[in-house]
Amino acid sequence: MKIVLTLTCLLLAVSPALAERSKYTADYVRNFKSDQIDQKVTLEVAWMKPVKMKEEKDYTVVIAHTWDEREKNFGGTIPVVLLSEDRVDLLKKYDTAPDKEGGKFRGRDLDTRRLSGILREVGKGKTLVVDLTDGKVDLSELRKPEEDKDDGKGRKPEPKKPLKKGPGKKPGKK
How far apart are CA 95 and CA 110, in angstroms? Predict the structure, then answer.
């Protein structure tokens, strides 16, 4: 009886460590990209951040922040390319900041919504992106995007000011 109880306890302790990570995160997609390039992928998105574009294009880019529902942990980020006309609706649906489940932060859980698109490798660095344009946009010129610091409400953080040097004499002067 002790052997059965010991084996059961050991199995219960080891099984979470052997559990597979969620397939709906950016980290998973990045780690298993060779199987998924030019295939439809689905992600659990907690929120999205707009990306600054240097010039107006017929497409826009947002950064999707994914959430691992199984492990209750962040699942990485991935750029999402979409038509410019769809940007407002997408940001309304997925929000620009994380929503806590049920309105309260309980046990590190966030509200997520599923996003499906085609996984593509673009640019010289072969950046992975999720393409929502249905092939209407040439993504060959796309480069690695940078997140916009806008919080989605039109506010941007102020630039950091350089540190002032403390009192003292400049070297070489008496």
Answer: 12
The residue extents of the domains of the chain are 22-131
- Cα-flanking dihedrals φ and ψ of residue 92, to 5°? -65, -40
Strand partners, 67: 74
pTM value surpassing 0.85: no
Residue 94 contacts by C-beta under 8 Å, 6 or more apart in sequence? Answer: 45, 47, 48, 64, 113, 115
Residue 70 in contact with residue 112, Cβ under 8 Å? no
CATH number of 22-131: 2.40.50
Nearest partner of 64 among 123, 122, 141, 119, judged by Cα: 119
pLDDT band of residue 171 (cuts 50, 70, 90) is: low
Max CA pair span of the chain: 87
Residue-wise pLDDT tens digits, 100-121: 655 555 546 788 899 999 999 9
